[in-house]
Amino acid sequence: MPVKLVQSTASAYQYPLLIKQLLLTPLAVAPDQEITYQGKRRYNYRTLNERIGRLANGLAGLGVVSGQTVAMMDWDSHRYLECFFAVPMMGAILQTVNVRLSPEQILYTLNHAKADVVLANSEFFPILAQIAGGLETVKTFVLFSDEAEMPAVPVSMAAEYEAMLADASPDYDFPDFDENAQATTFYTTGTTGNPKGVYFSHRQLVLHTLGCAAALGGANAQGHIHREDVYMPMTPMFHVHAWGFPYLATMMGVKQVYPGRYQPEVICRLIAEEGVSYSHCVPTILHMVLGHPAAKTTDFSGLKILIGGAAMPEAMAIAAQKRGMDLFTGYGMSETCPVLSMAHLDSADLKLSLEEQAVIRAKTGRPLPLVDLRIVDPDMADVAHDGKATGEVVVRAPWLTQGYVGAPEASEDLWAGGYLHTADIGNINPAGYLKVTDRIKDVIKTGGEWTSSLQLEDIIAKHEAVHEVAVIGVPDDKWGERPLALVLLKPECVGQITEHALRNYAAHAIEAAGVSRYGVLLQVSFVKTLVKTSVGKMNKRLMRADPAALCM
User: Fold this and answer.
1) Which of 263, 422, 463, 527 might form a disulfide with 393, Cβ 3.0–4.6 angstroms?
2) Which domains are assigned to the chain?
3) Close Cβ partners of 305 (under 8 Å, ≥ 6 residues apart)
4) pLDDT tens digits, one per residue of 102-155
5) Hey, which residues are catalytic here?
């Protein structure tokens, strides 16, 4: 039947969902709230707003216009926060460059995105020197440094960042335009082929911010975020907008702390000195921080940390709770902006033991508002929500990328059947919690059954000698594949336990947990390192290629 459209008067303001609107609340209610970079530079939201205007005027003076792409190469900083706003608010597109990619891949992403301007920290001058001759569209460089003096520059510098802002007016008339205009682009850290570009609009970023605010604000006691929190990212701002939390923190007007490059001693110092109470990271970053000597004297009580990017072992949740942390899982991917679900506990759950809570905290969580998340079979039919039946996770939400830059076939595959395909396998229990059990490409096909590598990792990680573990499938003439646990021991446990003993421990624990009977075929190898991607995820593709090369 026909629907009736809402009519408006000619003078009514239609209110496009633009990133600039996220600045309204903090400037109204918290203009004097503090933002700090490494505890060394400090200013308030009023100054942030002025610097956003100065940055826009400076870029406009260099010829940046609507639709052009401005690329940023920096660690987590106040400068990055300014770019998160100024560039898209001008109508330009912000490319957040993954500085942990190889120089060849960075060159590919800049050329593929057709970047016009590059803003770069002097730490990345060696990379610029390598790739400058191959840049196809970049003509302008704005450079900056945290050092007292600027090192020798490898390219023709149009401006120095701080000098450009100092010379520019703080007043910039940021226009209204279509909320579906592209705001950002970045490249996924896939393990095969060239990185793939994804993109997001103003509308998507604003709705993602509101969705996260609703989910985190709706939490009763655990995982809750409020205006008196102190926010610090431990996820790179080049990776899915630091999971969107700088936008959320700014909209809420909370104190923000930017640590620069992730160094455990700096992270611990800032948590202590700045009173950090809310953060997010991948499991390997938290492992790195907690394993540093400075962590032994750092008070982590009251620190809320959202874990994502990889499965969180239950053992990590237990250990973090013992240190006073509120650790819980979030789920998403580069293509989803990224947050889709969070593992908040109901009040009754908080009365459970730490071990029982960890089971829930390590799940992938319940969907955010506006997220339509399903578990489906190969025919796109829903599977039972009984906590056992598994299928692929597919999703719809108003903030998902509409495709890959310049890759129509891959984009069609991503959205086959009208839902975005995550390539994750999982189940949903009667309480509505999603549990991702594996990536489709990482599941181990043993004896005609699927065995979850993540479930085996979670069991092995509970052993007190294990620092980190990755389980991969290796070819086996009889079973097709057999699970192999690549185990990185805690330094003090090296030589104190044998591979055979750990395998026996794991076999008994696997059997007791009721995992697929083929899980007990597990082999164990101690390794000197585990291969990870540029954002700290386990790179199982490379580990499968030559696991023997990793062994001790």
Assistant:
1) 422
2) 19-26+38-195 (3.40.50.12780), 201-439 (3.40.50.12780), 444-550 (3.30.300.30)
3) 234, 278, 279, 280, 281, 286, 320, 325, 326, 327, 328
4) 899 999 999 999 999 999 999 999 999 999 999 999 999 999 999 999 999 999
5) 188, 335, 445, 450
